[in-house]
Amino acid sequence: MNRNCVIKDPAPGNRVEWRRSSAQSAHERLAFLNEASRRIGSTLDLAETSRELVDVTVPRFADVAAVMVQDRLMIDGELPSRPVDGTTLVRRVALAVSSDDPDAWVSVFPVGEVTVYPAMLPHAQCMATGKPLMYPVLDKESARLIGSGIDREDAVADLLTDSSFLAVPLQARGRVLGCVVFSRRPGSQPFEVQDVAVAEEMAARTAVCVDNARLYTRERRTALTLQSSLLPVDLPQPLGMEIASRYLPASDLMGVGGDWYDVIPLPGCRSALVVGDVMGHGTRAAATMGQLRTAARTLASLDLPPDEVLFRLNLMSQDLDPTQIATCVYAVYDPVTRNCAFARAGHVPPVLIHPDRSTEIIELPSGLPLGIGSDPLEMRELILPAGSVLALYTDGLVESRERDIDAGIMALRRLLAGPVEDLEDMCDVTISSQRPGHERDDIALLLARVRDLDPDEVASCPLPADPRFVAHARRFVRATLASWRLGALSDSTELIVSELVTNALKHGWPPIELRLLRGRTLVCEVADGSPVNPAPRSAASDEDTGRGLQLVKRFAYRWGTRPTTFGKIVWVEQHLH
Description:
single chain; 577 residues; alpha+beta; Beta-Lactamase; Phosphatase 2c, domain 1; Heat Shock Protein 90; seven-stranded mixed β-sheet; five-stranded antiparallel β-sheet; 15 helices; 35% helix
């Protein structure tokens, strides 16, 4: 007899005679275990693995089988420490019944039910000791004891009285994950010691599969949580542009990778649009994605052209992790001129949807992916038509096991050329059509529709190289802000513009132009032909000059300079009241 098995006989007065099985040979048991090992653990899904166990055992081994696991295992993939009172919180994840009235069992033992089992119950004892527990025949009192933990004692007693009962722990890697319960109805051959050995073997194989599913689910959840936490929560809606985006994780752990997108505000109400894809999977790829996204934002703050940003990002990625490779496309859009500059590093090409719904691939050299080599990248600039939509995406949207990437891009172009106008709806239609089933790669999609700026969003004024026109600049500011209903900012803006224009006249050269932009902030820009950037300094108490930029800093939310083809632009932002 198996010394590790606890066998409980009914009370002597209620003993029901049962006989040992002689028909089931060791060969049949081995064949049954071989079949069970083939059918159990076909997926990395905890509930599915549990269903496979009960399906293979009913009715061949038992008339009823149920799998119960500790509840925290289902919630967060962790095993709790054992409570001091000996109780166990479990969830029933699978049930199979072969009887004349299966509905009765389902109503008494519903799948998904969470139950606290007191320490004296057989289930709790089985999980506490890690040993199987068998009742060859249950009397009514023992059957009522089994049902005492679920508040349906009478119904449980009616179903289990005179049946044979066996509880086996689910143990893997030295830890008890739950238990499996088998029952044979009255009149069937009761369980015997040889059956306990078979049940233990099946439970041991199932427990390893369940634990693998637990670890898989926890790893996937961790990767998804990390991925989603590193992606932007709310994208800004830049001036002159409407944005919509989607991120769709892969259908399995190996596909949870490093796809990301971003919209980065730049000086002058310009925006950088970024989409990237780390060539890896799991938590490591998601972490690398977060580093690259942060690095891209840092480089964008330097206001570098797209090719220079990607070149530096390439060098930086090699320092972060030489084994990780990524692709990226980076675009900078100016809402005033509708000029967009592109560069890409091994990434799939952007697609432009024209206002007439025709589409084109924006051709530009792909370059090497980030993390490979140190060759410079090329940049292309073009004017985006008003009303056009720019689509940036990752290869998971256009490449799959059923088609190559060129066919996927053509299918994407046909979808984007459809009648759907709303960007959010366009994202949904594109994702659902291009990704109908389970795929092993995640997807990032970023759509941006451009438009002309309204008269209350931009105003410009060219200025002659004459100090007398500083007053003209102030009048232009006051009149423009009055028409924009921003009169409360007139005084501070006039002071800022007066200082910037004076500096341009004294230290720069023509052409000089003043421009006001109204977006999330009020932006004042003064352009001149000199490449020399202004620098604030501390003026002595007896000096009449040198305090202009200090005044600008006091009234501004932030300020800075950026180079242009013909000189520079000094810009100042103020918060809108």
